[in-house]
Design brief:
Shape: globular
Number of strands: 22
Radius of gyration: 28 Å
Low-confidence stretches: 1-11, 542-552, 569-575, 673-685
Structural class: alpha/beta
Number of domains: 5
CATH superfamily of the largest domain: P-loop containing nucleotide triphosphate hydrolases
Bound molecules: adenosine-5'-triphosphate, magnesium ion
Distance between the termini: 69 Å
Strand content: 5-15%
Amino acid sequence: MHTGRISFDKLPAMDVTALLDGLNPEQRDAVAAPLNHQLVLAGAGSGKTRVLVHRIAWLMQIEHLSPGSILAVTFTNKASKEMRHRIEELTGISPKHLWIGTFHSLAHRLLRTHWQQANLPENFQVIDSDDQLRLIKRIVRAMNIDETDFQPKQAQWYINQQKDEGLRAKHIQPFNDPRAQTMVTIYGAYEDACQRGGMVDFAELLLRAHELWLNQPSVLAQYQNRFRYMLVDEFQDTNSIQYAWLRVLAGDVIPVMAVGDDDQSIYGWRGAKIENILQFTEDFKGAQQVKLEQNYRSTSNILNAANAVIDNNPSRLGKKLWTEGEAGEPISLYEAFNEQDEARFICEQIEQWKIANSDKRYEKIAILYRSNAQSRVLEEAFIRAALPYRIYGGQRFFDRLEIKNAMAYLRLIQNRHDDAALERVINVPARAIGEKTVQQLRTLARENGSSLWQAVTQTVEHKTLTARALTSLTKFTQLIEDMENTCSDIELHEQVDHVIQSSGLIEHHQKEKGEKAQARLENLDELVTAAKSFNLEEAQEKQLENAPEDALIQSPMEAFLDQAALDAGDTQADEFEDSVQMMTLHSAKGLEFPLVFLAGVEEGLFPHKMSADDPVRLEEERRLAYVGITRAMQQLVITYAESRRLHGQEQFNSPSRFIREIPTEYIQEVRLKATIKKPVSNFFSTTAAKEATGLNIGQRVWHAKFGEGVILDMEGQGPQSRLQVSFDFDGTKWLVASYANLKPMDA
Ligand code: ATP
Ligand code: MG
């Protein structure tokens, strides 16, 4: 077993210097350690991911492991891409053959290769969580189960939870608990439907890949032979099935480096187990423990604030983190009147930043929030201010309705038994196949244990419906067959183009009119573009698969569909234009930005109201706060609003406890302009102004010259009362109520 420092002088000097440059002694030890198990447990920004990247480079260059014998797990597909890039930069060796990916993408790759041994059809489809939910809904309905008692969403949650624990329906003993019995029945029916249709959800990818190891010793042996070293980033967020998959694969033969931070475990709600960190040292015998304590990312103000917040969590493994960095600017804290004002403030700050840093890119800035729903108001403000932005997660491209419809047609062409796809498009655009007909098809499919497509053809054959319904169904099947014929010998993007045209989707959205319809049409166009650019990547991907077991025999369309399904489940976004990055705190893990805004830091929102009363969940929320704060390198701005309209309801939240947990010495409150009086301190005057004008703060109004805007503040009395209005196109102005002649607008 390795102890103490390595003597580096025995190794080829140049390579070694290049690889160990820019690492501190502890990091170097980890990178250059012998090929044993290692656990790097260290705080945010201490260089864990950097160590992992350098370690891979070291294995290739100094230990001479072939790229194909190294497996690395990252948390997002985006992180995988970055890692490949970094490794190539460091070593000059092409990282093409490295196995780098998320647990999901690696499992997917294995199942594509070993579909037979995994008991899957060759053309199995990966379904995303929306499709999964729709399928479960259908099953619950078909079983005549009361949907109010057994909400499909709950059943989905239940099923995924069981899968994450490695349990199939047949493994679960509900005993005399009738509720559990029903859940297990739903789970079983869902498993059957997926198996019949060749559909694989995200949790299933992991479960099957694990079962592949357990049931096919020869496959396992093949990979145990192949891999000489494995690495896992963000180890604190692995769930039971992921850990088990890794554990079985490693066996007693493959050394593993796990890298993580217990203070950043934020997926407990999705089955992640911090305990895996402790388990690791037991299961992976002799694991060398590495501590990294120096933070290289943030100013000391930011780091101290983060340390102070996380210190309030009672159950921590306990780590110290320090920096040589300068104090930097204090953390800015802004109290907004409402969510509109918050968004406007953030835009103004970004505009000022850009003036001061005209040479810097917008992508240096991130806006982080607790809940996806917060993004809409921010987006609107950004559009008004003509600031470029991009949302990671949230309304992702492949999550959009029109895209999902188009993809469903494509999936149906590939696999008629994809019930989720058929359900989605059988009557979109409308072709006179009503809910009643669909219900009859479902019943028939259930009775025969067949797919919906089979039910359709059977119905048509036996003419068991009204003539009208039969005509519509015949037309539909004909349409899909025709599509397949046309698509059989044209390029991928031409296929996509053909399908969105001939399905009638384009026409359907053209008829809708309006902004939204326009956007949908643009998105459909964008899908053709995506298919075009996919071809290229796909060709490269193909070249890379040279080992026989890696030769994925997939058509470009199949590969395209899989990629889309995986993308929709990830935080991936395309890098087209330089833009401010908006994302949930969860998607920000592992990333860093010079300027970070944490928006909506209010009780009820963050910590989330569902978590505030549960000590375990509250700790997870606090870790999320720690993750958020430690994303910032130079500047952190925290905002909260006195009142907030979210999900159509007005809330009055107090500032989050996480703000109070930051010592005041690190914080500076921002007052936008000295002239603005805040409504609270101004209560009587506001009330008077409200009476005089009949208008409210937060209300949208219309002005003859400036157009639409929102009222931010009011003061004064009677005809002299003044209103502060933020106009969509003309900025913020104070107006005298009696002259302004503002017209209230409907929400
Ligand atoms: P997180 O917990 O957020 O994932 P991490 O521990 O993975 O963080 P990294 O992202 O690897 O940390 O590193 C944080 C920043 O510090 C990066 O910009 C990295 O390049 C830099 N860094 C790490 N180690 C050093 C070092 N020895 N010298 C200079 N910069 C370093
Ligand atoms: Mg990291």
